[in-house]
TrEMBL record:
Protein name: DUF397 domain-containing protein
Any Pfam family matching the protein: DUF397
DUF397 domain boundaries: 10-61
Taxonomic placement: Bacteria, Bacillati, Actinomycetota, Actinomycetes, Kitasatosporales
InterPro entries, A to Z: DUF397
Amino acid sequence: MSIQQGKTHTWTKSSYSTGNGACVEVKSPQVRSIAVRDSKEPQGPALSFRSAAWDAFVSRVSGGELGSGLD
């Protein structure tokens, strides 16, 4: 997914989303935070992460350090 921290004011669906409905959306209206929500529940809760924590998470996922949880 490609968002710009502090410049993405609308929800953006993950580029890794599939047709099975298991999708997340993210936005970053402020430089210091990333918001994440379930695309199936747009009126539901959203999680907020500090930018450094989000960057570390994405780096670990991209590097294959975190399993899929489906093992």
